[in-house]
Amino acid sequence: MLAVFTDFDGTLVEIAETPDAIDVPSGLTERIDRALHDFDHAFAVLTGREIADIDRYLSPLQLPVAGAHGAQRRRADGTLEEVDQAIIEGADAIAQSLQALAMTNPDLLIEAKDGAVAMHFRQAPEMEEAVHLAMQEALLDHPQFTLVPGKMVLEARPVGFDKGAALRAFMQEEPFAGRTPIFIGDDRTDEDAFRAAQELGGVGIKLGSGETAARMRIANVASVYALLEGLGGLAHRHQDAAPIVTDTAH
């Protein structure tokens, strides 16, 4: 039996110029709802976004989600792990310290979250070095945070929180426990989850090119949909399989 985990941006939806500009394809919630049933609800999203963001885009579904790279987590039973107030305050302070750079460079975007903060430079790639320097300086007063690079984004997240740790936490709970984990992602921030899935006997699957710890690779978002459908079909065949009894009486 499988436990399936996916990233969101770049995996379930295409990456956009800004986080708010993504296009959620028609039928995505229905695809995910089918996956929930195919995998007996052992399906979760591990994302850099906040849980509230995922709920907004995938309404009316309320999935198990690890948000802000694991700083937030909603279990399959709906209970939430509380974010430590010191972490929230630290992320707010880091975001405030980045405001001066963002104000003088309006193509930079600060994405503040409960427990993490990201600065996107997709619309100003020439600012990458300046963003790195500003965030390194911001973290000098907040050693409980670490920097994590992504696709045209740099994120400050709490030390000890990552998608791999979130995957491991889910795998200790129902309905994930005892299953074989599969994690599908596209970014450098997904590498911890690739490794965690594989260390637990499962598989990491990376979209696109680039160096990775994942043992498998697929092409694009459309391939993710096809993969989920295929894995769901395998799960159904496994569930429906029954021994064939031949009547040999004469």
Automatic annotation (TrEMBL):
Single Gene Ontology MF annotation: metal ion binding
UniProt KW Metal-binding keyword: yes
Cofactor(s) the protein needs: Mg(2+)
EC number(s) on file: 3.1.3.12
Keywords carried by this UniProt record: Hydrolase, Magnesium, Metal-binding
Catalytic activity: alpha,alpha-trehalose 6-phosphate + H2O = alpha,alpha-trehalose + phosphate
Source taxon at top rank: Bacteria
Top class in the EC scheme: hydrolase
GO biological process, one term: trehalose biosynthetic process
Family membership: Belongs to the trehalose phosphatase family.
Function summary: Removes the phosphate from trehalose 6-phosphate to produce free trehalose.
Protein name listed in UniProt: Trehalose 6-phosphate phosphatase
Organism placement in taxonomy: Bacteria, Pseudomonadati, Pseudomonadota, Alphaproteobacteria, Hyphomicrobiales
